[in-house]
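[job 0417] fold request received: RidA family protein
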Amino acid sequence: MKRIITTAKAPAPIGPYNQAVLTGNTLYISGQIALNPETSQLVLDNIKDETQQVMQNLKAILKAADMTFENVVKSSIFISNMDDFSSINNVYGSFFDEATAPARETVQVAKLPKNVNVEISMIAVQ
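[job 0417] inference complete; emitting structure tokens
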């Protein structure tokens, strides 16, 4: 059985999907972009601030499922420019203990929703 996880502290879905789905003890979090849920504005000032907003959105969804970044077992990072990798990685890494960080891939893509520069999805386990 699946349970839909939602929170007002992360952006509302803009299509036929949910912020996250919990099935058994596994949480699947949809890709998050740097949309500030309080203002509904994109945070695109610079790649570090953009990534910080994405991670805050993910944190809010994890919290809604009674989880933290410690529960994350897999991350997928999609970026529009591999030259931003180092900056994104520094912000992303600040949310994890390197010794227990999740598995991950980082992929450069041609275009992301709303022309953002980074989107991150996660899988977490209780």
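[job 0417] notes: Residues 2-125 form a domain with the 60s Ribosomal Protein L30; Chain: A; fold (CATH 3.30.1330.40). The first strand starts at residue 2 and ends at 5.
[job 0417] exit 0
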